[in-house]
Amino acid sequence: MPAGCRRFLSAVLSAALFVGTAGILGGCRKGFGKDAEGKVKVVATIYPMYDFVKRIGGDLVVCSMMVPAGTEPHSWEPSTRDMMMLEEADLFVYNGAGIEAWAGDLLETTQNKKLVAVEASKDVDLLRTSEVHFDGEGYEEEHEEGSSEEGHHHHGEYDPHVWLSPKNAEKEMTAIADALISIDGEHADTYRKNLEEAKKACEELDSAFRESLKPYAGGYIVVAHEAYGYLCRDYGLIQIGIEGVSADQEPDAARMRSIIDMVDKYGIKCIFFEELVDPKVANTIASETGCRSVALSPLDGMSQKDIDAGRDYFSVMKDNLDAIVSSFS
Ligand SMILES: [Zn+2]
């Protein structure tokens, strides 16, 4: 969409919503299209949510991924066009735990009274950002910042990358299945069957991680950003993040020095980079320490090329497992 169109839309959005004249937005607007007739219309925010919705919903749903393929989601914000998709949707699926800091505003703005919204991570035990940051001595002490409102996850307070634990992915898919059943009870059996298959796949994935990483318990991985807190917790590893949980700041000189010292101290052989985070710093650390640099995907986003090639949550997680195992030898 041209920038001018977006600016125009921003200006008229609230008015358009109130008078219900979405039609005036004409060519600027995308919709679910004809294929959506008779199906549950879902807007999912980030790639893992999109993958989970398709897995549980199958042919009964049509799903639009809000954060475009190949986009790093931490700093992404919806355009007016993205917001308009919600007006036509039956279900809005977001991960929560703070990765879509804009989700609350979006839900307050929508005029779609029948819209069901599900925060897929709602039943996950969240880790605080301080609990996934390793500074060389241990994980940072937890600082109590007073009690936050129950059920309200503020941006930056928790590690949102819950899906990188297969056990958590199972909980997120269960929340999505419950939401689909509440909207489309007629097909409850199909959603339940798909959920059972997905749970089985999550359990197999969890077993594969558990078995393969058992010999490396207590091992360190150097990663592009602190996305692997839940994965490390589940399988006894420690992540050293080049950037923080939100991948929004390159390390300062002191942190760089500290990472390079840890690489030497712990005999680390491999630095993991990510497709959606500038690999410059990872490459610098790798070349200074003589490490290999290898790709690891936090599944924050997935490129259109990979989606078209049939890659998905499970295939990427299996590749991640192979990459982590090989980093220890
Ligand atoms: Zn991330």
Q: Tell me the CATH topology of the largest domain.
A: Rossmann fold
The gross shape turns out to be globular
- Regarding quaternary structure, what we see is single chain
Residue windows where pLDDT falls under 50 for at least 5 positions: 15-29, 142-151
- CATH-assigned homologous superfamily of the largest domain: Nitrogenase molybdenum iron protein domain
At a glance:
By secondary structure, the chain is of the alpha/beta class.
Features:
single chain, about 325 residues, alpha/beta, Rossmann fold, 3 domains, 4-stranded parallel β-sheet, binds zinc ion
If you had to describe this structure to a student in words, what would you say it looks like?
This protein has 329 residues and is of the alpha/beta class. The protein has 3 domains: 1-28, no CATH class; 29-138 and 158-205, Rossmann fold (3-Layer(aba) Sandwich); 213-327, Nitrogenase molybdenum iron protein domain (Rossmann fold). The chain is 42% helix and 12% strand. It is built from 11 helices and 8 strands. The protein has helices at residues 3-19, 47-57, 80-88, 103-109, 166-183, 188-213, 229-235, 253-265, 280-289, 304-308, 313-327, and strands at 40-44, 61-65, 91-94, 116-119, 220-225, 238-243, 270-273, 292-295. The strands form 3 sheets. The protein has a 4-stranded parallel β-sheet with strand order 2-1-3-4, with helices on both faces. It has a two-stranded parallel sheet with strand order 5-6. α4 links the parallel β3 and β4. α5 packs antiparallel against α6 (188-213) and α6 (188-213) runs parallel beside α11 (313-327). The longest helix is centred in the middle third of the chain and has 26 residues, at 188-213. The chain is globular. The site of zinc ion (ZN) has 7 residues, from loops.
